Amino acid sequence: GLPAPPVVVYHLAMRIGAFQLEEPVPELREPHALAMLRPWIDVGNVGTLTLNWLERQYGAREVARLSRPGTFFDFTRYRPVIYFSEGQRQVVVPNAYVTCARRQEGNDFLFLHLMEPHACSELYVDSVVRLLTTLGVQRYCLLGSMYDLVPHTRPLLISGAAVGESAEQQMATAGVEPSDYEGPTTIAFLVSQRMPELDIETSTMIVHLPQYTQLEEDYAGFARLMTALSSLYGTPVDQAAVAKSHLQNKEIDLALEKNPQLKSVVEQLEKRYDARTKAKKEGEMPRLSPEIENFLREMGKRFGQN
User: Are 294 and 167 in the same domain?
Assistant: First the structure.
């Protein structure tokens, strides 16, 4: 008789908005989505370090990525990277992608590696929202970091917001202070704004880093955010990162000894931090001297030009 036909295995992929999702769609238990956003709120790579650590701990696997990232991103600003693999040149194109992880206890996780879009932002936001609803997300939490007038010698502050009774209670338990920020922001915050309309809880956790440090990988911020997440989810804390944060702080201390002007700035920031903690937002925040404010403003401009 005729030989049996070859067995063909099809790797199906379905589209959800602009995302390509590999089938079979993972079955997740009341998943919580943890998202980071480059470059707006990922100074010191705190969000990146946090998601990468959690993905390694839970053996996360990729479930979706944008099918045509050039629709949203300007590749003269987010540069493709070329590398060699087995003697052949390969190019990695920057992209937003999503991974998932199952846990033995508690909510499963989705990890969203988002990037600030340069075009078609409404489609980008719609696609993220559709992906979250399709995968049955119960809570969306945006994680990140920003520079602020805080000293490295005090516990780093985390500010944020939450919508949903459970999320609000947990944010308070984790020591997250209500954010009073007003001003320019990222279009990606529309994802958070739309979640409550879909009965999905939402929260934001932003670590405040010292403006004068500007570390490529800020392990103090990473350790602080991981500690807050651990109080919410029982996730492990990277003890190696905690040790690295102590080393980084020692290096900053040594640098301050050689820079009296910056050391004076840090002393004022310490006084301001302590007064703020004592006041607990009652009364007026202590102001920095005009000289210190000018110094920090000029320093911020110099970093912005680099």
Answer: no
Query: Locate tokens 């954010």: which residue?
Result: 179
pTM for the full predicted model:
0.86
N-terminal to C-terminal alpha carbon distance within the chain: 73
Which of 162, 136, 153 is closest to 210 using CA atoms? 153
Asked if residue 264 belongs to a domain, the reply is yes
Tell me the mean pLDDT in the region 108-116.
98
Calculate the alpha carbon distances from 216 to 28, 43, 107 in Å: 34, 8, 31
Range of the domain at 281: 259-306
Q: What is the pLDDT of residues 209-233, one digit of tens each?
A: 999 998 999 999 999 999 999 999 9
The answer to whether position 6 is within a domain reads no
User: Do residues 179 and 290 both lie within one domain?
Assistant: no
Q: What does the pLDDT average to over 262-291?
A: 77
More confident residue, 26 or 6: 26
Q: How many domains does the chain have?
A: 2
118, 197: one domain: yes
Residue 260 exposed, middle or buried by CB count within 10 Å (0-12, 13-18, 19+): exposed
Question: Cβ-count burial of 96 within 10 angstroms (0-12 exposed, 13-18 middle, 19+ buried)?
Answer: buried
Q: Judge whether 151 lies within some domain.
A: yes
**Same domain membership, residue 291 and residue 211:** no
Alpha helices in the chain (DSSP H): 46-58, 121-134, 165-173, 189-194, 219-233, 239-257, 260-279, 290-305
Angle at Cα 203 formed by Cα 303 and Cα 49, nearest 5°? 45
Closest of 191, 190, 230, 225 to residue 205, by C-alpha: 225
Residues 217 and 83 reside in one and the same domain:
yes
Q: Do 214 and 298 have their domain in common?
A: no
